[in-house]
Amino acid sequence: MLVHPWDAPLDDTEWREWLGRQDFGQLIAPGDGRDLPVVVPTHFLYDDGAEAVRLHLARPNPVWAALIERPRALLTVVGDYTYIPSAWGAAPGTPTELGVPTSYYATVQLACDARIVDDPGEKSEILSRQLGHHEPGGGYLDPDPAHEHFRRRLPGIRGLVLRVTGVRAKFKYAGNKEPDHREVLARRLVERDGPADARAREHLLRRHRAR
Question: DSSP E strands: which ranges in 44-152?
Answer without folding.
Answer: 45-47, 52-58, 72-84, 102-117
